[in-house]
Batch of 3 targets.
Target 1
Amino acid sequence: MPQSSSISVSVPPTTRAEQALVFLAILTTPLQSRYPAVAGLSTSFLTFVVLAIYVIVNRSRLPLTLLNNRIVQCCGVLLLVGFIVEPLHELASYFEHSRILFMVGGAIVVACFCRDRQGMQAALLGFMAGGMCMSLMLMTTSYGSLQLADASDFGSASAARIAAHTGNPLAGNLNAYAYLTGQGAIVAAAFLYHTKHTSRQVILLGIIGLCVIGTFLPVSRSGALILAFTLAVMLWKSRLPRHYLVVLAFLLAIFIAVTVPDVVWSRMTLSFDDSGHRPEGRVRVFNAAMACFSEYVLLGVGRGQFYSNWGVIRGFGDYYTAGVHNAFLQVWLYWGLLGVLAFCNILFAAYRSLPRFWIDDPLACALMGLAMSVGLMTLFVHNLYAKEFSIGLGLLIASRAWLWPKGIAVPRSIPQTVSTLQTPIPQMGVM
């Protein structure tokens, strides 16, 4: 085996300008649908382009230090599998490959801006501010309509959901809005746990309440489930007495029951029974995936072929092919068993990037909550290159590369200086 040489690079602390840039980039991500696209590109994508240009011009050596990061390497393995398997099928398409490549690039850029505690905190505050803004917009545009709506089953609740958000300036993916507002509540909850100032506690409680309501207003089952599960884990892992946990959970349940419109609860169901009526879309695509499992179990069918008539014929849509609302199943359909194993390897690397004893550090606690929410999102979305994944992976890359390189969260009482860290840049050896 050839030995790889390395050189050391001093990692400078983030500047106020860099902290402001990453804060604004994450803040505007939930609001991208409010602004018109430029040359077919979303404002969020253009924002990340600006960040990338800044890194190339001012911090060009930092991305090189991340090439040996486990998450980056695992993403490269997934791309390699995709490039090998896709040409084996008809109508080969490399759209997904290019978007995943952009996602990984965005993650590296985000990591460069979160290389110390100040940069990471700015990013986390961006999540909280974005969740607040999204929640306020949802409350002012749809809360009244949902409060007046009357629904007794899933179908009527879905119709009320569409009616409440028709003409809404926040035109876009309602499930994504629920995820993003929930992440604002998760970050605020992590900061609340580590805050001793009464005034800050009151403010953070208000933010949590606002974001919790906002999570339910898109009437998204997956968004509500992700928020509830993540907050439950954070509470359980906290060092609060168990009777405090019971009281907190009880108060939160009462708050949700009182403030969330009744129509929301009529849609919080999932039935696999298709007798006598047409099953919902999520169930239809799951059934279709199970029916043709033998066709893609080993080598998949390719991204291009899946979105052709192949998908429509096998029940993944009526007039066009729809995704399967599950990232694992989607990548399995694309690139078979090797693809889904490579995807699982990315998630395992992300899990290993979380520091131990995260509950003792406010930033690590918030990062764990975000990582859990993003991981749970893979069970409900089929978009492998979502910006939420890019930002989440970027935070985890920075976590392992710079903030907690030993995988252990530093207690708050112990100062940590990032500027003294030395990170190797791998050099290509001769094979």
Note: The CA atoms of residues 2 and 431 lie 7 Å apart.
Target 2
Amino acid sequence: MNKLISLIGAPTDIGAGSRGASMGPEALRVANIVSVLESHGLDVLDRGKGMTEAVLTNALVPFYSTKRSGTGLGLALTREIIEAHGGRIALSNREGGGLIVSITLPA
């Protein structure tokens, strides 16, 4: 579970770090994120461009990347960690634009 908390708390190149957000593992523990994930799951939503159907289909596959210098490991590792804990991750587009990343873990 600590690896999952660290992974979720790590800023990404897509946004949080560039806006000065600092929600690391300790902040997530204080926010009781573990019990929320186990009892209700977690949806992370944004209002970006979303993903094409082809990208949605392949985004969780190792080494798949839409970035020229991307490794394609970020979402794939996230999926591996979540599934190793008996959970699931799903990606879907939001109506009106953006993406929903849904994470659930067993109680």
Note: The helical segments are 2-9, 25-30, 33-39, 53-58, 74-84.
Target 3
Amino acid sequence: MSRKILRLILITSILHSITACNNKKSDQTTTTAVITSDKQFNDETSKYVPSPDLDLVLFAIKHSSFPDLIKNRKYYDLRGDVIKCEVYKIHDPETLGNMLTDIVARPEDRTETYKFNKDGNLVYSNRFKSEIEVVNKFNENNIPTKQTIINDGKKYQRLFHYDDNNRLSLLSDENDESIIEWSYENKGEYPLDIRLYRRKKLKQRIRLTWNNDLLIEKEKIGYNPVARNGILYRELEEFNYNNKSLHSVKLIKIGSRRTVSSQKLYYDENELVTNLTQFNIDNKIYSITNYIYDDKLNLIQTKQKADINFYTDTFGVDQDDIFSRKVEGPLELLGVSNYKYDKYNNIIENESPQIMRNFDQQNKYIPEQNNKTYYKYKYDKFGNWVEKLKLIEGEISMYWKREIEYY
């Protein structure tokens, strides 16, 4: 269980760093994202209009015949054959009691509802505070055929179309306002050409070159009729491998001027990533990240030097398989944060600096006292939490309740 979390953090860190290298200049830095168990039930949402990101769809279908636009129950931190899950959230101080059993969730506290089919795929969701409702339909092979989104009373639909080889060939809305087309070679599993149309006009195109199941080149072109030659931008990514392990990525941007940035990955004898080095458009190193493992090949630490700043991420597991994490960075930017998780991988303790920064008369940073946040849970027999309490400095600040039904 702990190795799964560590691997997820490593992959997230590498992908986040590679993305940053492609889009940021050398004076900017990257950090590993912090895992928190309550972010999936955040009430804060923005207006949503279906417009699938082409890159997201592309890399999702690299390992599947259709894009991973339909979430399953694992995404919502649910175990077992769940039919339905209703989430309640209370943050009103007058409603929160001193003990977990004193708090009673009311119907108006309900924030989200999820329903799943027997295969675990999401068939219905409703976010009550933001009035977003989603209904997914599947065929007899459990492949998505239609997705309906209702937002503030307005209805949007995505339609999934497949070719004779069960490969996704077209993703469109009901009015053909947005269309994505996939083209393949004979019975090949991976697409060679993907095109995005808006109001029947070509807006973006991705050409792909594969060597068996390895992507070796991706060309992305953006179109705009008012741009020179009708091309808004053009990017070319080249992927190089050592055996089947990704060794380096080069990004070439062709616009008003040509720029090249890149990153290289290094491995040990166990084929584990030990170093990620990133180069800016001047081919100068601006970030080096080292990955350290224990004798059991578990990731235990990452060390990153980005520009003049240093970041360290340390992981540990005790004899009870309790996972902990310590994040350290420049005092004036990040400070030191500590995290602990229970055996179900839910966060139980978080100690981190306050966001506000204070400085003395000499403009020197004055460290703030760390805030301690604790989480308490009640679990059912399947290992799903049904009650969750958040305490900051001993005071209750948030309460969640989940009512879960099983097949």
Note: Residues 2-23 form the longest helix (22 residues).
